[in-house]
Amino acid sequence: MAYGPKVIDHYENPRNVGSFGTTAEVKERKDIGVGVVGAPECGDVMQLQIKVDPSGRIEDARFKCFGCGSAIASSSLATEWLKGKTVDEGMGIKNTDIVEELSLPPVKIHCSVLAEDAIRTAINDYRKKNGIAAPEKAAAH
Amino acid sequence: MLKLPLYFDHAATTPCDPRVVEAMLPYFTEKFGNAGSRNHKFGWEAEKAIDTAREQCAALIGATPREIVFTSGSTEANNLALKGAAEMYKRKPAGQTGRGHIITAMHEHKAVLDPCKRLAKEGFDVTFLQPPPDGVITAQMVKEALRDDTILVSIMWANNELGTINEVPEIGKLIREYRKTKGRDDIVFHTDATQWVGKMPTNVERDGVDLLSWSAHKIYGPKGVGALYVRRKNPRVRLVAQLEGGGQERGFRSGTHNITGIVGLGKACEICLNEMDAEGVRLVALRKKLESTLIKALPETGVNGHAERRLPHITNISFGYVEGEGMMMAIKDIACSSGSACTSASLEPSYVLKSLGVGDEMAHSSLRLSMGRWTTDEQIDFVIASITKAVEKLRKLSPLWDMHLEGIDISKIEWQAH
């Protein structure tokens, strides 16, 4: 697979790798939303964690990824984009934006779908922990 | 100084040995004749070259020259063997079921599986043996599958993805005994020996093989040429030709001879016959060093398939919790292949690893490294260092590795597959 320079850059220098604690620890924390999507038997698993300040702004994001180069790049890019956004704004990130930014080939579009899925799952986890209902438009997706 | 990238994909194809190229060159230009031209020097020269190549091929596998049929490679040889034998030994006419029983295995190459699937559609009954976790098809497994209407058994000598070696001589013996006790001569044993021939000593008489396919490009010869061995006595194997025309190759395979390719195949066979013993010893040592060092350095790492019954030059290793394509990106100076879905057009992980019952996640985590005539100890050291670094880097990125360290059993998690 010949990748574009942006995928290679994210793969070589992944941004925001890590987590805010073990699986058990982050489960207890209300300021952290966790999204783990994909499956090992499918060959990719993304774990995205967001740390949200009291005003609802994502102050930090971390990822880990078991997957191919574009899965790693897509999740790395997602953390970059999430930082500084409100959770509502974060919901607006679309997989097509990731495809465009990274110039993903058609066969790798599922990596961007997975990243979008990870973002939504993490935000929904944060909302659920804090009893925040999803706004209408996001829920309609 | 190492010249990068390093080539560790000799099971996919090999470079031509310069001695092979040298032997081929005159046949492109001054000795370009058609062996079918019986009335002039150009034709005679070509015919003589083909006779020599046929002898070189026969010598490598312990056959007689008249038993060698030149083809465009293993894929064509397999197609001719399987379809040609099925058509010849069929029990009922086309369009009917119960035309005959065929035994093969689930982890054969597609060039055997797909012709077998075609035959199944045409009314033959095909048994696809499931390999055990070590990947080795035994004579006992074939014996249990044999039926009174079995006409064809096709079991590869060594597996291309794993490097594991099936019990081919034992199966050959089984089929011989079966013929004798049942008084049948209408059952034949084919082996796709593409990865085996030229690497390991082969004798079709001793090993009881009736049909054997191989390719030049896996043994340091050119692409686009190969051969099928067709037994001429005890019993005489008959095939229905699949390519019809000028009647070359005793009618088994029409088409003007690929003279340069055939000369190259012959030369490649001759070199292998002379050098395989020493080459095998050297490659086994390199492979064992590669396997044992990586397994020692990296936890949750293991060789796929039988540990001992292996070709000298192929290894297949799974590095737990690391995805194969991601890993190949990290070791971009090493050309190799992976069982990961992401490296295949179908986005399915290796059907070979799956057939062994290796979990899908281990298939996604596998690398096949295959060495060759010019692989050096220095290269092995580079590969070990690169892979170790890559696995450590990617495990730091892997959520599954964290879960493993936290003692979470990832097989017990309900994953939302997509």
Task: State the main characteristics.
heterodimer, A: about 140 residues, alpha+beta, three-stranded antiparallel β-sheet, 7 helices, about 20% strand, B: about 425 residues, alpha/beta, seven-stranded mixed β-sheet, four-stranded antiparallel β-sheet, 13 helices, 13 strands
What is the gist of this entry?
The complex is a heterodimer of chains A (141) and B (418). Chain A is α+β, with helices and mostly antiparallel strands and 141 residues long.
Describe the structure.
The complex is a heterodimer of chains A (141) and B (418). Chain A is α+β, with helices and mostly antiparallel strands and 141 residues long. Chain A contains 7 helices and 3 strands, in the order ααβββααααα. Chain A has helices spanning 5-12, 23-28, 69-82, 87-90, 95-102, 109-129, 136-139; strands spanning 32-39, 44-52, 58-66. In chain A, α1 crosses α3 (69-82), α3 packs across α6 (109-129) and α5 (95-102) packs across α6. The longest helix of chain A is centred in the last third of the chain and has 21 residues, at 109-129. By secondary structure, chain B is α/β, with parallel strands linked by helices. Chain B has 13 helices and 13 strands. In chain B, α4 (110-121) links the parallel β3 (101-105) and β4 (125-129). In chain B, α5 (139-145) packs parallel to α6 (168-182) and α8 crosses α12 (377-397). Chain B is globular and about 75 Å long. Chain A binds chain B through residues 1, 3, 11, 14, 17, 19, 22-24, 36-47, 64-69, 71-72, 107, 110, 113-114, 117, and chain B through 321-326, 329, 340-343, 345, 347, 349, 359-361, 364, 396-403, 406, 408, 410, 415-418.
